[in-house]
């Protein structure tokens, strides 16, 4: 109608008039997805696939600056030494405690939070979530200062009030483990509660009503209605806790930095860091890494079999 | 009778949650209070339950703002690294997740398999070869070395894919009829629809990067290049005379996050429980 609008239409139509072959190629539905995924493929090849293969190769080598020699399995035979066993047993104990605590307690708390008993649900949920926001280094520092050796530090103050002796928290094997487990559980409790709360939304309300008509007690309803429906979430939470537990490093570093007395805080990743980075023995470090990966794979695999995750889902 | 019993149970449960919430918040509250107390006392005594209210002062904060030394470099480093990581990882991961969800193409399942592969291999095993790679690329002690391995985040790809599957495909077709390019469809139509998932992922990536420890510890070498967690960890020695910076600096590390959390709670929850998305 008006000249102005005609100009505009022409402008819009222009790219269609002279089709740019390259652009048309790049804009075809066949090519576009590959362009979209190309950064990922590049990053996968360079930062995931290449280092995984390299790590396995390195674990059979002695890696010195400018001198790389193939030494077969000797890194692996060196790995199995008392220090590594110490690191592995520390890590395993840590995994067992954190997995049990971070699975069982959040289930109970989530069921309670979901019940009609609790007021102010949102406030409780939010406050329990806050620890997950702070870095392990910062919260670990606070724990370290609260569990100091002096009688004036919070934990020992409480013990003294209860008539008990002060504890050198960071210098005993049991209390060192306690500190690491406590820090981890404190941090992740709220997040795990949220996982279970989400899982609870899948439980059909009619089932509770039916159970009530049949005269089931609260405990029976929990065991036979709630728990079976929480099974997938429980497997998931337990699996991520196991993996995170075996990868633990910061909880130990924040209490003892590079080294703990008698290696009470040494973990597998801590040993990897010590040998591979600090001692610059990369081949040895890589062997520790490969063993760590195998342990994680095997443990998660066993866990998935035991919990029946591979069984066919019969709806 | 029955009512009385259940109200007692309600009382006990509520009380239990009050105590638990207090335990959850106690270390953070102690940190806040301790930051207002003389740092020499903190170093000598640790964090006590009791404290002398008359010793409360803002001295530690005055000190950190006037003589904070490298603290402000750490703060800047953390800020820049987190911001760049968020922008890059959101951009690239959303592109990948979107393509995996809404285009049919050869190799799609293979690429999705790659995503799962990265999710399963622990980062610690890749660490030493990646460290060597950074050395050979001359990237040690740079922001780039910290950011590069995080640029395409598998968790985010996974999350965006799940989210994009639910977007209306018809919108794409009608946009094509209107002459929009494939890129135009993504950036102008679909990306804005993915905004809620963006917020959750921005928080996940941002928090992860802000609190990240092991990888930056390995590739950052000089004190002025450290990020906050690493810098603060260096102050954490029994002989440290920098507890003023340590304690006030720690508060300033987590308070911004807690404030963000209060305003964007929903997205924090979605971001931090992303592992729960069903596959």
Automatic annotation (TrEMBL), chain A:
This is Arabinosaccharide transport system permease protein. Belongs to the binding-protein-dependent transport system permease family. Keywords: Cell membrane, Membrane, Transmembrane, Transmembrane helix, Transport. It is found in: Cell membrane. The chain crosses the membrane at residues 31-50, 93-114, 126-147, 173-198, 229-247, 253-273, 285-306. Residues 88-303 form the ABC transmembrane type-1 domain. It holds the Pfam family BPD_transp_1.
From TrEMBL, chain B:
It is a multi-pass membrane protein. Keywords: Cell membrane, Membrane, Transmembrane, Transmembrane helix, Transport. GO terms for cellular component: plasma membrane. It is found in: Cell membrane. Residues 75-264 form the ABC transmembrane type-1 domain. The chain crosses the membrane at residues 12-33, 79-103, 110-131, 143-164, 185-207, 243-264. Pfam families: BPD_transp_1. CDD domains: TM_PBP2. Its main location: membrane. One of its GO terms (biological process) is transmembrane transport. Belongs to the binding-protein-dependent transport system permease family. This is Arabinosaccharide transport system permease protein. It comes from Mesobacillus foraminis. The lineage of its organism: Bacteria, Bacillati, Bacillota, Bacilli, Bacillales.
């Amino acid at each position: 109608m008006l000249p102005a609008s005609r100009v505009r239409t022409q402008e819009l139509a222009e790219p269609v008039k002279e089709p740019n072959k390259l652009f048309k190629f790049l804009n075809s539905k066949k090519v576009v997805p590959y362009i979209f995924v190309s950064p990922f493929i590049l990053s996968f090849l360079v930062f995931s696939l290449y280092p995984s293969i390299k790590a396995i190769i390195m674990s059979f080598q002695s890696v010195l600056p400018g001198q790389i020699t193939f030494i077969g399995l000797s890194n692996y035979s060196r790995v199995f030494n008392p220090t590594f066993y110490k690191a592995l047993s520390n890590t395993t104990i840590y995994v067992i405690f954190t997995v049990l605590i971070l699975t069982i307690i959040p289930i109970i708390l989530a069921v309670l939070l979901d019940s009609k008993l609790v007021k102010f649900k949102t406030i409780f949920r939010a406050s329990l979530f806050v620890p997950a926001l702070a870095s392990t280094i910062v919260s670990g520092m606070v724990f370290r200062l609260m569990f100091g050796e002096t009688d004036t530090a919070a934990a020992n103050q409480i013990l003294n009030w209860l008539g008990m002796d002060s504890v050198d928290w960071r210098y005993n094997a049991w209390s060192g483990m306690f500190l690491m487990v406590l820090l981890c559980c404190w941090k992740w409790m709220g997040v795990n509660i949220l996982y279970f709360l989400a899982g609870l939304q899948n439980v059909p309300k009619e089932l509770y009503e039916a159970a009530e008509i049949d005269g089931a007690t609260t405990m029976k309803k929990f065991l036979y209605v709630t728990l079976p429906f929480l099974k997938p979430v429980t497997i998931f939470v337990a699996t991520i806790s196991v993996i995170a537990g075996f990868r633990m490093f910061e909880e130990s570093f924040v209490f003892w930095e590079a080294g703990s007395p008698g290696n009470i805080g040494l973990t597998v990743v801590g040993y990897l860091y010590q040998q591979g980075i600090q001692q610059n023995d990369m081949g040895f470090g890589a062997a520790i890494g490969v063993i760590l990966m195998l342990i994680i794979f095997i443990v998660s695999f066993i866990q998935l079999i035991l919990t029946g995750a591979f069984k066919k889902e019969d709806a | 009778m029955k009512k009385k019993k259940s109200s007692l149970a309600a009382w006990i449960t509520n009380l239990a949650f009050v105590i638990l919430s207090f335990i959850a918040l106690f270390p953070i509250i102690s940190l806040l209070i301790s930051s207002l107390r003389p740092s020499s006392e903190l170093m000598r005594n640790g964090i006590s339950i009791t404290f002398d209210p008359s010793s409360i002062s803002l001295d530690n904060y005055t000190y950190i703002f006037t003589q904070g030394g490298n603290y402000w470099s750490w703060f800047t480093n953390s800020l820049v690294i987190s911001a760049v990581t968020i922008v890059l990882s959101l951009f690239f991961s959303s592109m990948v997740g979107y393509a995996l969800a809404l285009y049919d193409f050869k190799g799609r399942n293979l690429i999705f398999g790659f995503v799962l592969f990265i999710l399963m291999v622990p980062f610690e095993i890749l660490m030493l070869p990646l460290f060597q790679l950074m050395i050979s690329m001359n990237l040690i002690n740079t922001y780039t070395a910290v950011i590069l391995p995080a640029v395409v985040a598998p968790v985010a790809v996974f999350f965006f894919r799940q989210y994009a599957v639910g977007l209306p495909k018809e919108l794409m077709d009608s946009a094509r009829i209107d002459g929009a390019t494939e890129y135009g469809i993504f950036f102008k139509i679909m990306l804005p629809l993915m905004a809620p998932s963006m917020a959750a992922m921005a928080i996940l990536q941002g928090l992860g990067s802000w609190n990240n420890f092991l990888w930056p510890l390995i590739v950052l070498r000089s004190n002025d290049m450290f990020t906050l967690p690493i810098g603060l960890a260096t102050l954490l020695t029994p002989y440290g005379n920098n507890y003023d910076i340590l304690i006030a600096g720690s508060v300033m590390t987590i308070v911004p996050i807690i404030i963000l959390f209060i305003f964007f709670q929903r997205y924090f929850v979605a971001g931090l429980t992303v592992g729960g998305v069903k596959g």
